[in-house]
Amino acid sequence: MTTLSTLTPSGQALSGPRKPHVQKRDWTGWKFIAPFMVVFTLVLIAPVLYSIYLSFFKEQLVGGNSFVGFANYGQALTDPQFWESMGRVTLFFVVQVPIMLGIALFAALAIDSARLHLSSFFRIAIFLPYAVPAVVATLMWGFMYGTKFGLVGNLNDFFHLAIPDPLGSSWVLASIGNIVTWEFIGYNMILFYAALRVIPTDLYEAASLDGAGAFRIIRSIKMPALRPAIVIGGIFSVIGSFQLFNEPSILQSLAPNTISTYFSPNMYAYNLSFAGQQYNYSATIAIIVGLFTAVIAYIVQNSGSRKEV
Amino acid sequence: MKAPHSTRKALRRTAVVVATGLALSMSLAACSGSGTGSTASSTASAADITAALNEKSTITVWAWAPAVEKIAAAFEKEHPNVTVKVVNAGTGNDQYIKLQNAIKAGSGAPDIAQIEYYALPQFALSKSLADLSAYGFDSYASEYTDSTWGSVKLGDGIYALPQDSGPMAMFYNKAVFDKYGLTVPTTWDEYVATAKKLHEANPNAYITNDTGDAGFTTSMIWQAGGQPYTTTDSTKVSINLQDAGSKKFADTWNTLLSNDLLAATPSWSDEWYKGLGDGTIATLNIGAWMPGNLESGVKEAAGDWRVAPLPTYTAGDKASAENGGGGDAILEQSKNKLVAAGFLQYMNEGAGTQISIDAGGFPSTVADLNSDAFLNATSDYFGGQKINQVLVQSAKDVVPGWSYLPFQVYSNSIFKDTVGQAYAAKSDLNAGLTAWQKATADYGNQQGFTVTSK
């Protein structure tokens, strides 16, 4: 909104009262964005529309294809497996995201504080896991989680501990949360750190002249400046949580009985279409999850920017 | 002043976008709707096949069995006009996904595909595979073992030629048995007793590993005489995973599971290979294709392993089952079925079978199984034991009458959600089997089958 309102006056000034070419359409703008629009239509809009189209049909191994209206949506909304998976990723989002963003925030503030020796080393070291592909990271953690020959097994043997199986059914979600946190702290830290770097240093000088300590500066200058970055990090995390797929999908081969085919909504959709050939129902699930994610992301964005005013 | 104009523009813009999107999706849908365009499937004679092989042609084969490349090379030497492109499109389920997608898309499927026995009904009943009776292949019935021929003969049609087979046997680590003074069990009761004795002697050692595997469970039910799946008229399915055979297996396995006598190590994992090597997994009840995997994957236990017949439920009984193995099928989509038939016959009925055996495959052809060279082959890895004698006997003892579901691939994919949960909780496997049956029946009904769940 703010950007629009600043533009309007100058726009009016340019159009002016004299030139009367009212109806002639100018396609220049369209020509400039045409390459983008073509790609955007092909890779984003068309698949989404196609999925919506698919979700109104039902194709069976016996009986062929038929139009079913909203029947797939009705089925999804009463599907206990779907809601179980949604519940699981919601829990994941509620617990894992605050922990991850909290640690990332702490790391960004610590590195920005200028009291840390080797701050650039820490910056790279914390960021490095983000450069490790999720598949590799999961495999690596999967081996460490092993209770027989993995790190957990070694610790148990060496210290005569009884660490519970990280891939057992009661711990597996936390174990996945740990992997995801490890992967994405660095990314969020960089996001926050970049936001901190653009704060003009004279604000700090002014604050310290006024007698503000480090924590007062964090509370009154840094945190308000960080709010947009935190909102962005939050939105990415919402999307990441609801689209949880790589980590459980790979750990499944190590813990087949604790990670079901409907562990996360994405895994459910994947298995429905690729193991069960239920493309229509799978598309329905995908659309519902997409809408759900958009709503949550909107709420996060809204609550973040409302405080700003 | 400008507002109404721009909204109209925006509206028109959205309309254009929506229209293009719709048009696109329509055309995509048109692609997927066409399905399998079946070509003329009148009977062809051997002469027709020979004639086709003399013309210039190319066929594509999707297979992961390592022998297929070598067989294709040998075939091309004999038929220089034919080019056989062998593509490894993934193993098992990975390949079925791609195959299913190509079938749905109406193009892109190979001429020949390797399909395991358990997955064959799914592709055959959806009319994606050519009936090989059209090429006179039904006359090969007596050349294959009953169990493998039974797996490719679905209804009145022949939908694949068997390649390898996996009659089950008990592979055991003799060094471990000797160390703890165990005798080789011949019944499942003895097996459970041996499991207890071993685990008491060494708490780290287990009689076997099992974290729940659909293929293993169905094979074990097969051996116990269960016939949980029956399909009539290709769409009427009945499922009973609580029939006498299924219960027999589940009850025996419950004893092992509830007493913590099964290693919770997933098969084919690193830990599994380590366990097979260091003696903490003492036996494997598995298909006859296992020797090659032991030799290459568990080198440190060379000389320790032996093969014995699968234990039975009644002393003195002879009963076995197939575990894994598969054949090769011609896709209905293929535009070159005569050439494909020629290659298929060469690969699985002709000279190809020996190449497959040399590459470590366990044959399904009676002549190869009963040849002196095969029966008397000794293996250093197995301490000089003539293991094929045990394995071939197992092929003869396979319990007849088994069939898989026409949607077994999906059913197996949700095994971990149901029976797997019983494994994880070490609770009653019968309850897990019942849950599996229910989920499978639900899927079948949704897919338009008429499923009776007993």
TrEMBL record, chain A:
Look up and give the membrane topology term.
Multi-pass membrane protein
All copies of the ABC transmembrane type-1 domain together span 86-300
**Which UniProt keyword terms apply here?**
Cell membrane, Membrane, Transmembrane, Transmembrane helix, Transport
Mark out the compositionally biased spans (Polar residues).
1-13
InterPro entries on file = MetI-like, MetI-like_sf, UgpAE/MalFG_permease
User: Where are the membrane-spanning stretches?
Assistant: 32-53, 89-109, 121-144, 171-196, 225-245, 279-300
Name the source's superkingdom.
Bacteria
Region feature (Disordered): 1-22
The cellular location(s) given in this protein's UniProt record come to: Cell membrane
Among Pfam families, the record links this protein to:
BPD_transp_1 (PF00528)
Under the heading PANTHER family, the entry gives: BLL4140 PROTEIN, DIACETYLCHITOBIOSE UPTAKE SYSTEM PERMEASE PROTEIN DASB
What's this protein's family per the entry? Belongs to the binding-protein-dependent transport system permease family.
Q: What is this protein called?
A: Sugar ABC transporter permease
Q: Report the source organism.
A: Cryobacterium glucosi
Automatic annotation (TrEMBL), chain B:
InterPro entries recorded for this chain? Answer: Bact_solute-bd_prot1 (IPR050490), SBP (IPR006059)
Matching entries from CDD domains are given as: PBP2_TMBP_like
Q: Keyword Phosphoprotein: yes or no?
A: no
Alphabetical UniProt keywords: Signal
Q: Which residues cross the membrane?
A: none
- Coiled-coil-forming residues are none
Tell me the Gene3D superfamilies matching this sequence.
Periplasmic binding protein-like II
Q: How far does the signal peptide extend, from start to end residue?
A: 1-29
Q: What is this protein called?
A: Sugar ABC transporter substrate-binding protein
